[in-house]
Amino acid sequence: MRVIVTGLILMGGCGSDKVDDKGKGNRQIDTAQLTDGVDVDGDGFVEDDCNDEDETVFPGALEVLGDGLDHDCDGDPNRTALVWATGMTGVRVPTVGATTEHYVLTTAADTYTPDYTDVGISLIFDLTAKGQQQPREDVLWTGASSDEPLGPQVDMPSFGENFFGIGNYQRPSDTAYYTTIVKTNWDWTVEAFKRTPSSEYHGLSGPFSDVSARLAGTELRVASCGPGAIHAVALTANDLPFGAYANVSAEIPGEGATHCGLQHGDGNNSVLHMGDGGGISSWDIRFGSETISAAAEQPFANLSANNIRIDRQWIVIATTDGVTLSDESGDSEYRFFVGQNVLDADVSWFEGHAVAAVVISGDLHLAWGPDPDDFSEVRIPDIAGITGVSIYRDADRVFVAVSDEDTVGWFFLAPPPV
Fold it and tell me: In total, how many domains does the chain have?
């Protein structure tokens, strides 16, 4: 495991008071609640427990987004640990998610310690019941010691105890660009993730600027986009690395494509939304007939995209005028942080409630609630220069990962009260 360092961030308000290096506050312990060394609330802590009548309060507990209580007994209800990875340069915007038993953060870097170049990296976290988490292992899923330049984006869909590291790279030997898909599965015999041989798909001659992947059951669809080009593959995820049942490319002269997001359509069809600061175009990908053509509807043609993400049934577009959130059916559309130049945004839904992570001028903002028109919102002070963000929510955790020019960082919270 590589070296990691811990910092602190504040989870409430817009103040700029600095936090001390050790993360200690002036903690008041109510000794009246301690009964002869008995753990009254059963949380496993006694003497250092600042409220032994609340099982969610103990040293190292997850802070709860927005509830105003000091769960981790550090003296500040709005402070939680932020962990930065070290040894990386030239990192890509991370993406976070989960398998059935683990959380996973995936990124890529130009270098990872002195030993690895042009490398895809996934950090694995246990689904422990309490406290902040350090990764249990790292998985290098592509390019561990190569001179094959990686593209600027990665993606990571998952199902069961499997996840996929997906990216693009250039092979200097033939100057061609490839989409690489690496399936990684949990090996119970050694209690670690193991990667399978990569599946590689030759695209067009131009470079790819983004990649987007979607899973429907065990069917995996991947689309890479670049200026004037789309390359898409469809695979049966359980059969990797044995090949795709559809592999289609198209040249689209004059179309910009800094970012793209792949939306599932009907049957063997998908829709790719791709664009840059000049607008977003939508393209029908028909895997059955292996054709790509302009979509009849162009719902985001007037938006200037800084990034495009797809979260389950929602399309998340970071724009120069806020965040646009649209469901895949087109029936619902929301806008928030209107008037702000949003560099990146991600949204995760769970049982009708959303949490959003948004980067504005290098600052991180979190928003949450059942209705995006009425989100609660907080700016995270004391960290700056953020270039990208990813967020994942389930019943137990809110998992946030950020990137700056040098590395990636992460923190965990408990979900906000419903």
Answer: 1
Distance CA 301, CA 148 (A): 34
The CA-to-CA distance between both ends of the chain, in Å, stands at 37
Give the span between the Cα atoms of 409 and 176, in whole angstroms. 33
CA-CA distance, 44 to 252, in Å (whole number)?
Answer: 60
- Is residue 25 a part of any domain in this protein? no
> Quick check: is 355 in a domain?
yes
Instruction: Report the C-alpha gap between 178 and 207 in whole angstroms.
Output: 9
Residue type, position 294, single letter = A
Q: What is the CA radius of gyration of the chain?
A: 22
Please provide residue 101's backbone torsions phi and psi, each rounded to the nearest 5 degrees.
-125, 0
Would you say 65 and 366 are in contact if contact means Cβ atoms under 8 Å apart? yes
DSSP β-ladder status, 176-187 and 150-155: unpaired
Q: Which domain holds residue 333?
A: 94-413
Vertex 51: Cα angle to 350 and 393 (nearest 5) = 10
User: Is residue 9, in this structure, part of any structural domain at all?
Assistant: no
pLDDT in tens, 223-264: 999 888 899 999 887 777 667 778 888 888 767 788 999 998
Tell which residue, 171, 164, 160, 163, has the closest CA to residue 201: 171
280: nearest Cα among 298, 254, 296, 253: 298
**Looking at residue 69, what DSSP letter applies?**
-
Name beta bridge partners: 80.
Answer: 9
Nearest to 202 by CA among 181, 177, 234, 175: 177
Copy the structure tokens of residue 405: 């020019």
pTM of the model: 0.88
